[in-house]
C-alpha cells in the first residue's frame, strides 16, 4: 500500500525530459515474500491512454506485458527494453506476469479477500501506522478490535468494513467483527458522547457507518442457510445491532427480524419459514435509501400477523402459579439461611465484647489497688490497650449490623470478612 514517484520503481524523463511516472504497491504478497500487485501510473498527457485496453479505468498499468503493449502501440520507434523497462529487470520482477506464485495473506488467512485479484480502484484502502504495521495484521481481513481474522461465511454478515473516504481516492478500509464492536460499545445504539443509533464507529478514522443496510441483508442471507442454529445466530446479531434504536427504519426492521425469530422458536421449519406468504419488506431497503420511507411503512402494514399458538389457559396459569410458589419457597429458605448466619455471627461478636468488658473491669480494679510502681504503669498500659481493642470490636459490630438491610444490599467486603461468605463477581 506504499506509493511514490519516479526511481527506483518508476521511469523518469520518459518519453520526454520532465515526464515522471508514479508507482504503487498493493497489500498482497507471494510465498517468496515479494509483493504481487504493483501498478505504474503514466503521465496523463501521453497519447492513447484513454482508448487503450491495457489500462483499467485509464489509471494504471497492472503488468509489464500491458506496459510493453502500450509502448509498442503508442511509441513504435522506442526501444522498450532500453528506454523504460530496465527498472524491472531483477529476478524479483515487480511487474511480473507469472501467476504461478502462491499468494498469501499477512495474517495467514487463506480466505482473505486480498487473495482475490482486485481491479485497481479509486477507493482503495489506506493503511495506518498502528495496526497495519504489525507483521501479522491484514487490513482486508483482521479485525481492528481483536486482531483475529473475520469470516466470509454467509456472505460475511459477521463483520463490517469502514468505507469512509479518508483522503483523495483512498478509504479507511479497516474491518471489525460486529460482535467485537458491540462489546466495545462501538456499534449498535450507544448513548453518551459517542451517540450511536444503529451505527458503527470506526476506531481508526472516527467515521460512522449506518448498519441498518447491513442488517437488512440478513433475511436474504438466511434463505441460503441450511441450519436453524446458524439462522438464529445471524438474526440475533441483527437484533443486537438494532435494539434500542430510535430510528423508524431500524424499529420496523427489528420488528420484522423478531417476528421471524419467534416463528422459528414456535417450531416453524426453515422451508416453511421462507415459503411463507409473508413478504420480506426490507429486501429493497438499500435501493430506497435517500427516498421517502412511506412505501416501506406501507409494506410493513401488509405483513401477515403471526397466528397465535393454541394453549390451555387454566393449565398455563397453574404452571405459572407453581413456578411462583417454588421461587417464593426458595427465597424464604435463602432468607432463613441468611438470618441464621447473621444470628450466629452477631451473637459471637456480642460474646467477644462481653469478654473484653470483663477483662477491662478486672484490669481497672487491679490498677486501683496499685497507686504507683512499675506494676501500676504496666497495668495502665494494659487498660489503654484493652480500651483500644474494645473500640475496634464495637466498630466491627456496627459494620456487621449493616446486614439489617439484607445480604443483597450489604457491602461485599463486610460479608466476606465478618460472615465468611464468598461473594461472586
Automatic annotation (TrEMBL):
Matches recorded under Pfam families: DUF7081 (PF23299), DUF7615 (PF24590), PHD_Oberon (PF07227)
UniProt xrefs under InterPro entries: DUF7081, DUF7615, Oberon-like_PHD
Residue intervals of the DUF7615 domain: 315-418
UniProt domain DUF7081: residue ranges: 2-82
Localization in the cell: Nucleus
Coiled coil: 317-400
Keyword Zinc-finger: yes
Keywords: Coiled coil, Metal-binding, Nucleus, Zinc, Zinc-finger
Domain Oberon-like PHD finger per the UniProt entry, residue ranges: 108-240
Tagged with keyword Coiled coil: yes
Protein name, per record: Oberon PHD finger domain-containing protein
Gene source species: Brassica napus (Rape)
Amino acid at each position: 500500500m506504499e506509493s511514490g514517484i519516479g526511481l527506483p520503481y518508476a521511469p523518469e524523463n520518459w518519453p520526454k525530459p520532465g515526464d515522471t511516472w508514479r508507482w504503487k504497491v498493493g497489500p498482497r504478497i507471494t510465498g517468496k515474500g515479494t509483493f504481487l500487485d504493483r501498478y505504474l501510473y503514466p503521465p496523463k498527457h501521453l497519447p492513447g491512454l484513454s482508448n487503450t485496453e491495457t489500462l483499467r479505468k485509464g489509471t494504471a498499468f497492472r503488468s509489464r506485458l500491458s506496459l510493453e503493449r502500450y509502448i509498442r502501440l503508442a511509441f513504435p520507434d522506442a526501444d522498450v527494453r532500453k528506454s523504460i523497462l530496465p527498472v524491472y529487470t531483477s529476478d524479483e520482477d515487480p511487474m511480473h506476469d507469472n501467476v504461478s506464485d502462491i499468494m498469501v495473506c499477512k495474517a495467514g488467512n487463506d480466505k482473505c479477500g486480498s487473495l482475490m485479484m482486485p481491479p485497481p480502484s479509486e477507493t482503495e484502502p489506506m493503511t495506518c501506522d498502528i495496526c497495519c504495521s504489525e507483521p501479522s495484521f491484514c487490513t482486508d481481513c483482521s479485525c481492528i478490535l481483536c486482531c483475529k481474522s473475520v469470516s466470509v461465511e454467509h456472505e460475511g454478515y459477521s463483520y463490517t468494513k469502514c468505507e469512509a473516504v479518508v483522503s483523495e481516492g483512498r478509504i479507511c478500509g479497516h474491518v471489525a467483527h460486529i460482535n467485537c464492536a458491540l462489546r466495545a460499545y462501538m456499534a449498535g445504539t450507544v448513548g453518551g458522547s459517542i451517540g450511536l443509533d444503529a451505527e458503527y464507529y470506526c476506531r481508526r478514522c472516527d467515521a460512522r457507518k449506518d448498519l441498518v443496510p447491513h442488517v437488512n441483508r440478513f433475511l436474504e442471507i438466511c434463505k441460503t442457510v441450511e441450519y436453524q442454529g446458524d439462522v438464529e445466530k445471524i438474526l440475533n446479531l441483527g437484533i443486537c445491532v438494532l435494539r434500542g434504536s430510535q430510528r423508524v427504519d431500524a424499529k420496523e426492521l427489528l420488528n420484522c427480524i423478531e417476528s421471524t425469530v419467534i416463528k422459528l422458536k414456535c417450531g416453524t421449519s426453515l422451508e416453511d419459514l421462507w415459503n411463507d406468504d409473508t413478504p420480506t419488506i426490507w429486501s429493497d431497503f438499500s435501493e430506497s435509501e435517500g427516498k421517502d420511507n412511506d412505501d416501506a411503512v406501507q409494506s410493513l402494514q401488509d405483513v401477515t400477523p403471526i397466528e397465535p399458538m393454541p394453549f390451555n389457559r387454566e393449565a398455563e396459569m397453574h404452571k405459572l402459579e407453581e413456578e411462583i410458589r417454588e421461587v417464593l419457597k426458595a427465597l424464604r429458605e435463602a432468607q432463613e439461611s441468611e438470618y441464621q448466619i447473621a444470628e450466629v455471627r452477631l451473637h459471637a461478636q456480642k460474646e467477644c465484647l462481653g469478654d473484653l468488658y470483663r477483662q477491662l473491669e478486672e484490669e481497672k480494679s487491679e490498677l486501683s489497688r496499685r497507686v504507683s510502681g512499675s506494676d501500676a504503669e504496666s497495668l495502665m498500659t494494659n487498660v489503654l490497650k484493652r480500651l483500644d481493642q474494645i473500640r475496634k470490636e464495637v466498630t466491627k459490630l456496627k459494620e456487621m449490623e449493616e446486614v439489617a438491610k439484607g445480604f443483597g444490599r450489604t457491602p461485599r467486603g463486610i460479608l466476606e470478612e465478618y460472615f465468611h461468605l464468598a461473594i461472586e463477581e
